[in-house]
Amino acid sequence: MISSLRGTVLHADVDAIVVEVGGVGFHVAVPVDFARSARVSEQVVVQTHLIVREDALALYGFATREELEVFVQLLQVTGVGPRSALGVLSHLSVDQIAFAVASDDDAPFRKVSGIGPKTAKLIVVQLAGKLAPPATAATRAGAAAAPDDVLAQVTQALVGLGYPERVASETAADTVREADEADRSHVAALLRLSLAALGPARGGAARG
Q1: CA atoms within 13 A on the CB side of 184
Q2: How far apart are the C-alpha atoms of 76 and 74, rounded to whole Å?
Q3: Given the DSSP bridges, would you call strands 57-62 and 24-29 parallel, antiparallel or unpaired?
Q4: Do residues 42 and 9 lie in contact, with contact meaning Cβ atoms separated by under 8 Å?
Q5: 4-62: CATH number
Q6: CA distance between the termini of the chain
């Protein structure tokens, strides 16, 4: 198993790079942001996963170990292959994926090319409880924030989950205004209340 590569970028494409290690060029499929940031002749370290098939060997690579671990978890979901899993990590960060799964929200996954409604729902169901909690300030359970920061953080979290900015901003403002005093400085609590307020019907309409 090739678990990582350290070498020089020989070529960068839309969703792949070629890394030279010891005179050998390895073609590695990577998330779009990784490929976009890669610079020819620069040194890179890539966390990799090797897919072995009868007719081919394929390397998939990521900038962090966390992305690699989520990729491997996605491969365990029924109907998700390597390209679809890579597509998810090209469109969503590790925290956004964990957010969506924890919130039982399949909408962000339905926006990924090749992921249909059934597969999106399976991702949420089959990854439940398997991902590390989001590490951003907006999602740390019980984390307190200054009042001036609360609204912006809740709004940003909702936008990250796929809601339009206007809907996210209005919902966050309503939630902060109506929440109990004890919840008003806790972003995680406000996010849960905001998602409950949006609900499946309202959220679906807003994103449609």
Answers
A1: 11
A2: 5
A3: parallel
A4: yes
A5: 2.40.50.140
A6: 42
What tens digit of pLDDT does each residue of 94-119 get?
988 998 998 889 999 999 988 999 99
Nearest Cα neighbor of 27 from 40, 15, 43 is 15
Distance in angstroms (rounded) separating the CA atoms of residues 29 and 63? 12
Which residue is it, tokens 């609360």? 150
pLDDT, tens digit (0-9, with 9 covering 90-100), for 115-171: 999 999 999 999 998 987 765 434 443 444 445 477 788 888 888 888 888 888 888
SS (H, E, C) the chain: CCCEEEEEEEEECCCEEEEEECCEEEEEECCHHHHHHCCCCCEEEEEEEEEECCCCEEEEEECCHHHHHHHHHHHCCCCCCHHHHHHHHHHCCHHHHHHHHHCCCCHHHHCCCCCCHHHHHHHHHHHCCCCCCCCCHHHCCCCECCHHHHHHHHHHHHHHCCCCHHHHHHHHHHHHHHCCHHHCCEHHHHHHHHHHHHHHHHHHHHHC
Q: Domain segments of the chain: what residues? A: 4-62, 65-127, 138-207
| Superfamily name with CATH number, domain 65-127 | 5' to 3' exonuclease, C-terminal subdomain (1.10.150.20)
Q: Is 203's pLDDT higher than 90? A: no
State pTM to two decimals: 0.66
The CA distance from 101 to 28, in Å, is: 27
